[in-house]
From TrEMBL:
Residues 68-175 form the Serine aminopeptidase S33 domain. InterPro entries: AB_hydrolase_fold, Hydrolase_4. Residues 307-327 are annotated as: Disordered. Pfam families: Hydrolase_4. This is Serine aminopeptidase S33 domain-containing protein. It comes from the Eukaryota.
Length: 341
């Protein structure tokens, strides 16, 4: 019965880009190493193919930072794949000074198999195993990052791994069913039961959510924050949507403060409900790279190819250099029906 339920849920929950935005080839000029021709080649990036315990072969991208003291395992949102997320991974590595590994779920991009809840758990387990065995990453050096539907495998792994450095939940869901209906109880056929698992996460948790998120209501993020054992000051971005939070300067500023401050300061306790609400004056940057990167003049200037297409229609003349159909960008009909997150 569980397999049938998972199959039905997959029809509503998973929308991999079709066709995929990238390919994977072996480059003979680089000793046969795997590469993605559709993205710029970088010496500090490795393309991997990993076998999961459910028999699927998934694609991952590992971005190395020369002075990294931590590694980030990024689980992306829906309707996106590695080709679209690549520049964001590079940007996160540069700004946060961490190694970043991102991966495609089974059935996404060039990963084999079909998308399902169980497969995403196997997918993140394979990436976690790779980090430990191939790169020597210890649990206390690892930050799990889950965006939207990616919060499902992220919270699941975090609930089973006691010594993680931290968890970041970006536009997270309470559960799959709760995205569609405001139910009060958790049913057996629900998927990604973050609402039940988050209390088992022992490390500091940062929750980021837009107050104008029309796909996953901000109440999801706020309730997960309340249920966290070790709370860190959350970020409620006033006016932020589901796919444009990286456009707000405060997004990277707050995230960087969290990541670089781990181990230096204590997270807020259960009794301390700090909030960080962005004022109306802090709007998304309209010119892409230059405005946001100005916050961190010590870092190299890189283009904001990672920015999303869901900008105000009136700002087309000032849109970023290049957009990505990232993290749950899908057609207006599906958004209105609430079928995808």
């Amino acid at each position: 019965m569980g397999g049938v339920t998972s199959s039905i849920a997959a029809k509503f929950a998973f929308f991999p880009p079709n066709p995929p935005s990238y390919t994977v080839v072996a480059d003979e000029s680089y000793g046969g190493k795997l590469c993605i021709p559709e993205v710029p080649r970088r010496e500090n990036v490795e393309v991997l193919k990993l076998r999961t315990h459910r028999g699927n072969e998934i694609v991952a991208v590992y971005v190395k930072h020369p002075n990294a003291s931590a590694s980030m395992l990024y689980s992306h949102g829906n309707a996106a794949d590695l080709g679209q997320m690549f520049e964001l991974f590079v940007e996160l590595s540069l700004r946060l000074r961490v190694n970043v590994i991102g991966y495609d779920y089974s059935g996404y991009g060039q990963s084999t198999g079909k998308p399902s809840e169980c497969n995403t758990y196997a997918d993140i387990d394979a990436v976690y195993k790779c980090l430990k065995e191939q790169y020597g990453v210890k649990d206390e050096q690892l930050i799990l990052y889950g965006q939207s539907v990616g919060s499902g495998p992220t919270v699941d792994l975090a609930s089973r791994t006691p010594n993680l450095r931290a968890v970041v939940l970006h536009g997270p869901i309470l559960s799959g069913l709760r995205v569609l209906y405001p139910v009060k109880h958790t049913y057996w056929f629900d998927i990604y039961k973050n609402v039940k698992k988050i209390s088992m996460v022992d490390c500091p948790v940062l929750v980021i959510h837009g107050t104008a998120d029309e796909v996953v209501d901000c109440s999801h993020g706020k309730q997960l924050y309340e249920l966290c054992k070790k709370k860190y000051e959350p970020l409620w971005i006033n006016g932020g949507g589901h796919c444009n939070l990286e456009l707000y300067p405060v997004f990277f500023k707050h995230l960087k403060r969290f990541v670089l401050g781990l181990g230096k300061s204590k997270p807020a306790t259960n009794g301390s409900h700090k909030t960080s609400l962005v004022s109306d004056s802090l709007k998304p940057t309209e010119s892409g790279a230059s405005n946001t990167l100005y916050l961190y003049s010590d870092l190299p200037d890189i283009s904001r190819n990672s920015l999303d297409t869901r900008l105000d229609k009136t700002k087309k003349s000032n849109k970023p250099e290049k957009s990505r159909t990232s993290t749950d960008c899908f057609d207006r009909f599906r958004r209105r029906k609430g079928l995808v997150w």
